[in-house]
Amino acid sequence: MGPHPAVAAIRLAVRRVLHDLLTEHHRAPAAVPHALSHEQPPPPLVLVACSGGADSMALASALAFESPKLGIRAGGVTVDHGLQPGSDLRAAEVVQRLRELGLDPVDSVAVTVGRAGGPEAAARDARYAALDTAAERHGAAAVLLGHTRDDQAETVLLGLARGSGIRSLSGMAAVSGAGGRYRRPFLELDRQTARKACMVQSLPVWDDPHNADPAYTRSRLRHEGLPALEKALGKGVVEALARTAQLSRDDADALDSWAAQAEATVRDAAGLLDCAKLYALPPAVRRRVLRRAATAAGAPAGSLFARHIEEVDRLITGWRGQGAINLPGKVVARRQGGRLVIRQG
Ligand SMILES: Nc1ncnc2c1ncn2[C@@H]1O[C@H](COP(=O)(O)OP(=O)(O)OP(=O)(O)O)[C@@H](O)[C@H]1O
């Protein structure tokens, strides 16, 4: 008898990602050519980022099962955000569970969570910094994350509510981070499948109290928003939102590359932006060119919001002699005759 369908599904999802990683590993040029070193390149190491929750425990179990078959080394990392009493004990428990699954090396990393951008964003920034450091320390080829299709649907809705364009509707990428380090094998699986896989494999899981805390936007969306949407629109909403993410990502990528080409054509010999040529561009491309110019001048991408770009855009499309526009990072945009100048003020 084969494994339970939920277990088969999580293993298949992980197997696909491991296959991709192996293909990339064999294609990458070795630091010392094998013919000279007379040695096989070491097998790649893949780490699972595990909170102890159902999604990442299911991921860890599938990684532990699939990796030896492909000659891949598998380890794990858990991050202790220090946000609740006893979080260190929980981290130690996760380490033990990962070791019991046969993963090695397994790290627990304690981080200090700041306040910048709100509690959820600050915890996420600290977590990714710790995962980056762990991946570099171990020379890992990849770090697997347990985001599911349900997480993707939530991310799309949060992006929609921000009102900042299709890039924010494109959710999380299956591959992201420096050198494509982060992989999300479960993006097309639902959370229920991961939970079921843990249950039938008797894997103990930890339910993060933050996930049920109505003080957090994502938690309200998960427990109130999405169920209400499903009730009103039908069961396929999560799947449709995840599909929206993929379609939006493709569209946003195409527009970004169009904007990169357009930027070169609207800059004059001195590197200033020609307002008439900007005006002639489709608005979606023009706004992207303006965003590129602002970040190139030093405006931090994360603090540059749609409203900033709209204001700069009005220097082109609604010109009535208005003054300079202040942007984050002390960048100033001003119109000088037929040119737009965006630089450090
Ligand atoms: N404390 C942590 N330590 C290591 N990895 C983490 C930690 N928290 C989250 N992650 C990684 O990020 C992914 C997404 O986490 P998030 O908390 O957004 O979602 P989740 O659905 O609650 O996931 P899970 O059920 O695995 O906790 C997790 O599946 C895991 O891979």
UniProtKB/TrEMBL annotation:
**Which positions does UniProt annotate for ATP binding?**
S51, G52, G53, A54, D55, S56
Gene Ontology terms, MF aspect: tRNA(Ile)-lysidine synthase activity
Q: Which residues form the tRNA(Ile)-lysidine synthase substrate-binding domain?
A: 273-340
The EC code for this enzyme is 6.3.4.19
Which domain of life, per UniProt?
Answer: Bacteria
List the subcellular locations.
Answer: Cytoplasm
Which keywords accompany this UniProt record?
ATP-binding, Cytoplasm, Ligase, Nucleotide-binding, tRNA processing
Keyword Cytoplasm part of the UniProt annotation: yes
Entry-linked Pfam families: ATP_bind_3 (PF01171), TilS (PF09179)
Reactions catalysed according to its record = cytidine(34) in tRNA(Ile2) + L-lysine + ATP = lysidine(34) in tRNA(Ile2) + AMP + diphosphate + H(+)
The tRNA(Ile)-lysidine/2-thiocytidine synthase N-terminal domain covers which part of the protein?
46-224
Location (main, coarse)? cytoplasm
Q: What class of enzyme is it?
A: ligase
Domain observations: The N-terminal region contains the highly conserved SGGXDS motif, predicted to be a P-loop motif involved in ATP binding.
Function, in words: Ligates lysine onto the cytidine present at position 34 of the AUA codon-specific tRNA(Ile) that contains the anticodon CAU, in an ATP-dependent manner. Cytidine is converted to lysidine, thus changing the amino acid specificity of the tRNA from methionine to isoleucine.
Recorded family membership: Belongs to the tRNA(Ile)-lysidine synthase family.
Q: What is this protein called?
A: tRNA(Ile)-lysidine synthase
What organism, scientifically named, is this protein from?
Streptomyces olindensis
Taxonomic placement:
Bacteria, Bacillati, Actinomycetota, Actinomycetes, Kitasatosporales
